[in-house]
Structure formats: C-alpha cells, structure tokens
Amino acid sequence: MNLTEITAIIAIVVSIAAIIFSVVTTYKLKNKDMDFDRRKFFVAILWDKLIAVRGINPTHVTDDLVMNVVNTLELVAICWENNIIDKNLILNSFGNSYCQRVKEIDGIIKGHHANYDNVINKIGMSGPDLLDYSEVIRPVCAQIRNKLDK
Prior knowledge:
Layout lengths: L2 H50 L10 H19 L5 H20 L7 H10 L3 H8 L2 H13 L1
C-alpha cells in the first residue's frame, strides 16, 4: 500500500466517525428538544389547570367542580400515557395532589353525604363510576403512587 491509499483509508474512517458522531449528536439534541417541548407544554397549559383544581369537600361540592377535577385528571393521565408531558415535573409538582384528587373522586358515593347524592343525581354517575369511565385515571394514579413511594 502506498501513502495515497493509506491516506484515503484514513479519510474514509474519519468521515465515517464524523457521520456517526453527527447522528448521535442530532439524536441527543432531538431528545433534549422533546424534553423542552414537554416542559413548555406542562408550564403553559397544564400548570394553570392543575393549580386551579381544588380539593373536594363534601360540604361545598358541586357537579361543575367534580367534572372539572375529573376532566383535569383525565387530561393529565392522557398526556402522561402518551409522553406528552414531563413525568418528573408532574411527580414533583402534583404527584401527591393528583392521587389525593383521585381518592376524593373515588369517595363520592351515594349515601355518604347529601351533597354527594345531589352531585351524583346531576351527573348521573358516582365518583368510582366516573373514574372507571375514564379508564386512564386510575392506572396513572397507580404509576404516580409507585414512583412516589420509591
């Protein structure tokens, strides 16, 4: 092999290494951009909804409040399941609150409180029925609880 052939082989190897480095760097930057977009979505859209969700107090419960809480829980759960939001932000900011709201909704049962009975009559479903209807809220709550317990 002469010097020209050796130089050509070295140039090819360096070019391949540069291509691999470029692909890996692009992949890492794309993932960072996706993480940033998730955080931006969380802060821009979900933050306001989550801080507006109040706890459910049997003496001050309304059907609008219950539906607002359930809809917010479902939105978070759908975003969680589809990796639209940063799960660590949810865990750190609202993990316990999310699970507490699920527990409160689950406690809206006929006969437990007169206001609960009124809400159930207006909505047409008890709290457990609402959570079952959603299908994603309870599993996400279980995932959040598991992560918080670790």
